[in-house]
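Progress note, sequence design subtask.
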């Protein structure tokens, strides 16, 4: 029979269920599955090692945070003070003298600003106190009248209850006060250390790049120099953008206070400007003081208008202006800026919200640099066709710029003395 002739000798076919649409397993399915599982296991192990490495790095940075914080603050201050220092150095001023002059001028501006604000506050403090007393009396009269009709005894009992609550929690309140005083003391100490470091950054900063690049090899030195310039440019851009945001907040809120006739306009505007450098809390505190002053001096109607002005300006600044400005200046998407602020605040509180954006921008700079390097785009070459290289001998190292005309060809190096002050400015972040 034809059907029997097609069978393999020695085997008998057994009837089974009808065939399905699924293909029969091939002989390579098992080895391929094993290969895929092996690749997945290797990738998982690599990810676990990377995650463990990040955890260790985060723990080490957390342990070194008391040392890193003054360094970070010093670098941020140095980005503001370096342009006038560079100008003084270019006209022949010795580095140490230029750093001292600029740092003392910076401190003089801060001290003069507060010396200008404090007398205005002192002059109008008496009027505000009298207005506050009258406001409390009006509040007491409104509470005792219709529709509440609370008696003097009820008000006295409420005041006594508040006093008893405060006395019962005196130990906790004292602990909170001590913690706050300790935090303020630590902040002042970090500021003092940061100012000391600013002097050395301004004085010896240009020597840092040759020293750092000299610790590497000739192949790595151009990348170290390029990344140093790009990160410095990113930090400078962050400070400029934050100052612009603070100025816009202070201008519009101060303008609203001036139109409404609220006293202490200039002190409140200055407080708003500096509050912009402390995200969320700074804006909240500045707005709170503006509303309180308006309430005490001009009544609740003006205070309500001031509250609306503060909320509108801060919402526009926080949700529209700041993400757009920082996104363009730092080459970050607005969503990345918002996520960086949120993540930084959830991990490290107020300071994390302040440092979240520049840290994200620095990570983006390093990522784009590595991406361009992997794509063969030579990111270490500046826009003018030069790249930094280290030369010298055992007596010392210096930074020179060599012009790159084509791959594998170099022109004669141009010595810049290892001083960024000789440059027109660091290149903008790549990408």
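Output:
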């Amino acid at each position: 029979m034809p059907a029997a002739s097609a069978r393999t000798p020695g085997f008998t076919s057994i009837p089974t269920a009808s065939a399905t649409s699924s293909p029969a397993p091939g002989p390579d399915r098992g080895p391929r599955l094993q290969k895929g599982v092996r690749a997945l296991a290797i990738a998982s192990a690599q990810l676990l090692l990377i995650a463990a490495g990040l955890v260790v790095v985060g723990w080490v940075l957390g342990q070194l945070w008391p040392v890193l914080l003054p360094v970070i603050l010093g670098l941020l201050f140095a980005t503001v003070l370096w342009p006038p220092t560079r100008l003084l150095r270019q006209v022949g001023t010795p580095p140490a003298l230029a750093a001292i002059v600029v740092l003392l001028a910076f401190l003089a501006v801060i001290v003069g600003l507060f010396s200008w604000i404090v007398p205005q506050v002192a002059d109008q403090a008496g009027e505000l106190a009298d207005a506050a007393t009258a406001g409390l009396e009006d509040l007491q009269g409104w509470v005792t009248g219709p529709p509440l009709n609370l008696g003097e005894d009820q008000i006295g009992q409420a005041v006594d209850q508040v006093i008893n609550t405060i006395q019962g929690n005196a130990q906790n309140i004292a602990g909170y006060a001590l913690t706050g005083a300790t935090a303020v003391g630590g902040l002042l100490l970090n500021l003092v250390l940061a100012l000391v470091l600013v002097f050395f950054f301004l004085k010896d900063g240009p020597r840092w790049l040759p020293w750092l690049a000299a610790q590497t090899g000739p192949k790595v030195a151009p990348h170290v120099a390029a990344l140093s310039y790009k990160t410095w440019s990113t930090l400078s851009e962050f400070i400029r953008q934050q100052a612009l945001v603070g100025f816009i907040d202070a201008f519009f809120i101060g303008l609203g206070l001036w139109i409404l006739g609220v006293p202490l306009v200039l002190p409140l505007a200055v407080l708003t400007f500096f509050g912009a450098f402390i995200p969320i809390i700074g804006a909240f505190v500045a707005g709170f003081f503006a509303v309180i002053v308006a309430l005490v001096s001009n009544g609740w109607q003006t205070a309500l208008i001031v509250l609306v002005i503060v909320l509108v300006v801060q919402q526009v600044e926080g949700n529209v202006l700041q993400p757009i400005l920082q996104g363009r200046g730092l080459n970050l998407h607005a969503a990345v800026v918002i996520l960086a602020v949120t993540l930084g605040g959830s991990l490290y509180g107020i300071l994390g919200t302040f440092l979240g954006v520049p840290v994200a921008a620095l990570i983006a700079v390093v990522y784009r640099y590595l991406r361009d390097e992997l794509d063969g785009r030579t990111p270490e070459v500046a826009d003018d066709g030069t790249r930094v290289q280290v030369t010298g001998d055992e007596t010392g190292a210096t930074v020179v710029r060599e012009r790159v005309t084509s791959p594998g060809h170099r022109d004669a190096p141009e010595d810049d003395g290892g001083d960024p002050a000789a440059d027109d400015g660091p290149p903008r972040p790549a990408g």
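The chain has two domains: 64-205, 216-431. Work on this subtask will continue into the next period as scheduled.
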